[in-house]
Amino acid sequence: MNTPEKRVVLVTGATGGLGTAMCRKLYDDGYTVVANYRNEEKALEWQKKQLEDGYDIAIYYADVADFDSCGAMIDNIVKDKGHVDVLVNNAGITKDGAFRKMSYENWKSVMTTNLDSVFNCTRHVINPMIDRGFGRIINISSVNGQRGQFGQANYSAAKAGMHGFTKTLAMEVASKGVTVNTISPGYIGTDMVMAVKEEIRNQIIAQIPMGRLGGTEEVAYLVSFLASEHANFITGANLSINGGQHVY
Ligand code: CAA
Asked: What are the tens digits of pLDDT across the range 123-134?
């Protein structure tokens, strides 16, 4: 059971590259970390690996594209840990392809997993955060939501939508001790980015002034900072972390 001073962080899509780095950093920084997953077999293996490395992280199933599934997950977390202080909306997928060939299914699955999920999870935690006078919503968007990317009409739309959500909810809960922010990572060395064809990936890296992909831990440090009380006055912001690929 968590002690009163231990804040509880829920990371969605925790078993991916970014999610794993966030969970470990937040754990190192003293949080009680709970990890959302969709694929049980992968999650159990992931949990075992984290434990071997000294990270004791409870895992909770939810399909973030489904409102009721998220509600059931959050009920279970509250039963076990008491409450959720920090929600990191990190779960996301890609279904890349030129728009003129994009199927409705590939549009819809990216919108529900990447954008509806933000409503589905946040809606279940926001009122308890307001009641306790503290909360953090951290939405993991993308440089491609800020600037667009060939082959990502679905993904860019969902990621841009996340920040519209951030701005409005930040205004609504600013007086209640709850902050809402977006982080927009550029190309980070995750499986998702490594799935882009090597030739295309190399062209993208050539457009990054720092000449390299970002590290997952570099994003994780920013998440931990936003979760902390040092970031009390930051809300409604969109923080870029992209090696200079998109400046504006
Ligand atoms: N810019 C301009 N034109 C391009 C292009 C580009 N980047 N890519 C392809 N084209 C052109 C092609 O040359 C082709 O031209 P013609 O019709 O004249 O021959 C036309 O566009 C269509 O190309 P394809 O038929 O090959 O298009 P496709 O439907 O197969 O899709 C793609 C191509 C798979 C989307 C490919 O462009 C691609 O992989 N792009 C990268 C997508 C990307 O960056 N994804 C990021 C994933 S990681 C992530 O999302 C994390 C994050 O937040 C950053």
From this structure: 999 999 999 999
Domain that holds residue 182: 4-234
List the CATH number of the domain containing 224: 3.40.50.720
241 located within any domain = no
Check pLDDT > 70 for residue 26.
Answer: yes
Cα 9 to ligand 1 centroid, rounded to whole Å: 36
- Residue 64, Cβ density class (10 Å: 0-12 exposed, 13-18 middle, ≥19 buried): buried
Name the residue of 99, 200, 216 to mutate for ligand 1: max ligand atoms within 8 A of Cβ: 200
Dump pLDDT digits (tens) for 90-100: 999 999 999 99
Residue 223's pLDDT is what?
A: 98
- Alpha-carbon distance of 29 to 26, in angstroms, equals 5
Quote the number of domains for the chain.
1
pLDDT of residue 232: 97
**Ligand 1 contact, 143 CB (< 6 A):** yes
- Residue 243: inside a domain: no
Rounded (5°) CA angle 216-66-13: 15
Residue 247 located in a structural domain? no
Other Cβ atoms within 10 Å of 212 Cβ, number: 11
Where are the extended beta strands (E) located within 48-174? 58-61, 86-89, 135-140
pLDDT of residue 224: 98
Burial 122-148 (b: 16+ CB within 10 A, else e): bebbbeebbeeebbbbbbbbbbbbbee
Would you say residue 37 lies in a domain?
A: yes
Q: What is the pLDDT of residues 37-51, one digit of tens each?
A: 999 999 999 999 999
CA of 156 to the centre of ligand 1 (A): 13
